[in-house]
From TrEMBL:
This is NADPH oxidase 3. The gene is NOX3. The keyword Transmembrane helix applies. GO terms for cellular component: cytoplasm; NADPH oxidase complex. It comes from the Eukaryota. It comes from Marmota marmota marmota (Alpine marmot). It holds the Pfam family Ferric_reduct. The keyword Transmembrane applies. It catalyses: NADPH + 2 O2 = 2 superoxide + NADP(+) + H(+). GO terms for molecular function: heme binding; metal ion binding; superoxide-generating NAD(P)H oxidase activity. PROSITE patterns: FAD_FR. It is found in: Cell membrane. One of its GO terms (biological process) is defense response. The chain crosses the membrane at residues 12-33, 53-72, 104-122, 168-190, 202-223. Its main location: membrane.
């Protein structure tokens, strides 16, 4: 087992190391090129090493801007996941970490943008100082180039008395650089966990500043502030011979005045492909949004949870996947992700939406869920659905024993899975490899059990009727309660069903002792391969990883736990 767990982890590390390696290679290679390239000899004389710092970070910035849109191209990810010939086994699981890679690339953009900005601030100051009266020698000669006809300038700051900030903001490079910086700051700051939880709408809208960011990036280099000697000038003006004879440049044919030009902008070449690909992604999303979605059932659960049953032509799903929902009457632009809670075998697909912000609150009101009676079907708001996306939890069926662990809202993808398990194991003609499922749910708020308990009660009843009550063993842990709840629980403890969930299996109070739980599972399945599937916070994920390693046998014939962290 340990080898398998380490393999999954090492693949993630391999991707990060590969990304870092390419960034370092591009940065070092470009840095050394600008430090040694003959055509930028005079530019280096004026700017020093900050020339190389600015250009190397610019190339890495282009590289990361090329990558940033690929992880959020959901249809591309879905295509790659389905193409078994190009993406097999553990590598396919890396596609589930697309948002982590998206964030990693964003950090790369932020770091390189910071280096680029700081380097150019130094460059601007050196350009400015080169025009001062104190400047002398080669520096002064280079700064005066362009003052007479038939000469091209090297220093974009033409006089020492010029306000460099005003001068910069009058250029294409300066204006687009400011726009790029502001857009990047807004996108990065609004992407923090706090902002996303406080106002998802703010995160969503500011993130779409990426359109302005990419347009500005494409034209940023057109300013051509950084200039180098032209190839024709290099043939006539031998730098080794002429650099110390700057006083004779206009007087002798052996050392003609060097001519300079800026490099053509290249950022657009890096980002054109991903931008076109992402544009196709949005076109597909628009096309899907126009397809009719029929709402067949609306259920208002306690604790402000709205259950929607829908149908859409050609819709196919797998357990654990999610969809994007848009409600044009609330916002014609916003799309919000929700995990599917129905099983693939059902003739509808469903989501459970809990009020947790402005948009979900507005949706709750639009369906009349806050009142005594829900709206009639003809008066329900129109919904658009895109998807499904994400990884399927089908690996659960690849083990004879599976352990499913959910914490808090992480229970949502397991709703679809448990239903699918029921259909495959209790109603299907062919018997799957899976023979036992352990389900654990750790939750802080007792009210969160209300909608999910109905599903568990239904499964519990149907499995008992089929004589398969032993197939699913579930354990629910409540980690938060007040004094009144404690009294109520104590008074009804002897009843046949649990006072909170209504299930035969009683709720546990407090947190699970994972040592005991894994020890018991290992004892009851001494020679089995056991899949452990978790959806929840990182801290608990690390604990479960450790338990999987601890209770896996060193003997190949013994029990082995295979850990799988699901991303939703």
């Amino acid at each position: 087992m340990r080898g398998c767990w380490i393999l999954n982890e090492s693949l993630s590390i391999t991707i990060v190391v590969l990304w870092l390696g390419v960034n370092l290679y591009l940065f070092i290679d470009t840095f050394l090129w600008y430090e040694e390239e003959e055509s930028f000899h005079y530019t280096r004389a004026m700017l020093g090493s900050t020339l190389a710092w600015a250009r190397a970070s610019a190339l890495c910035l282009n590289f990361n801007c090329m990558l940033i849109l690929l992880p959020v191209s959901r249809n591309l990810i879905s295509f790659m996941r389905g193409a078994s010939t190009c993406c097999k086994g553990p590598w396919r699981r890396q596609l589930d970490k697309n948002l982590k890679f998206h964030k990693l690339v964003a950090y790369g953009i932020a770091v390189n943008a910071t280096i680029h900005i700081v380097a150019h601030l130094f460059n601007l100051e050196r350009y400015h100082l080169s025009q001062s009266e104190d400047a002398e020698g080669l520096l002064a000669a280079l700064s005066k180039l362009g003052n007479t006809p038939n000469e091209s300038y090297l220093n974009p700051v033409r006089t020492f008395h010029t306000n460099t900030t005003t001068e910069l903001l009058s250029t294409i490079a300066g204006i687009t650089g400011l726009v790029l910086s502001l857009a990047l700051v807004l996108i990065m700051t609004s992407s923090t966990e706090f902002i996303r939880q406080f106002s998802y709408e703010l995160f969503w809208y500011t993130h779409h500043l990426f359109t302005i960011f990419f347009i500005s990036l494409a034209v940023h280099g057109a300013g051509q502030i950084i200039r180098g000697q032209t190839p024709e000038s290099l043939l006539l003006h031998n730098i080794t011979f002429c650099r110390d004879r700057y006083a004779e440049w206009r007087a002798t044919a052996l050392c003609p005045v060097p001519q300079f030009s800026g490099k053509e902008p290249s950022a657009w070449k890096w980002v054109l492909g991903p931008v076109v690909l992402y544009a196709c992604e949005r076109i597909i999303r628009f096309w899907r949004s126009q397809q009719e979605v029929v709402i067949t059932k609306v259920v208002s659960h306690p604790s402000a949870v709205l259950e929607l049953h829908m149908k859409k032509r050609g819709f196919k799903m797998a357990p654990g996947q999610y969809i994007l929902i848009q409600c044009p009457s609330i916002s014609p632009l916003e799309w919000h992700p929700f995990t599917l809670t129905s099983a693939p075998q059902e003739d509808f697909f469903s989501v459970h939406i809990r009020v947790a912000g402005d948009w979900t609150g507005a949706l709750f009101k639009a369906f009349g869920a806050e009142g005594q009676a829900l709206k009639e079907s003809h008066s329900l708001p129109r919904l658009a659905v895109d998807g499904p996306f994400g990884a399927a939890l089908t690996d659960v069926f690849h083990y004879p024993v599976s352990v499913c662990i959910a914490a808090g809202i992480g229970v949502t993808p397991f709703a679809s899975l448990l239903k699918s398990i029921w259909y495959k194991c209790c109603e299907s003609q062919s018997q799957p490899r899976l023979s036992k499922v352990y389900f654990y749910w750790i939750c802080r708020d007792a009210r969160a059990f209300e909608w999910f308990a109905d599903l568990l009660l239904s499964l519990e009843t149907r499995m008992s009727e089929q004589g398969r009550a032993h197939f699913l063993s579930y354990h629910i842990f409540l980690t938060g309660w007040d004094e009144n709840q404690a009294i109520h629980i104590a008074l009804h403890w002897d009843e046949n069903t649990d006072v909170i969930t209504g299930l035969k299996q009683k709720t546990f109070y407090g947190r699970p002792n994972w040592n005991n739980e894994f020890k018991q599972i290992a004892y009851h399945h001494p020679s089995s391969s056991i899949g452990v599937f978790f959806c929840g916070p990182k801290a608990l994920s690390k604990t479960l990883q450790r338990m999987c390693c601890l209770y896996s046998s060193a003997d190949p014939r013994g029990v082995h736990f295979f850990y799988n962290k699901e991303s939703f």
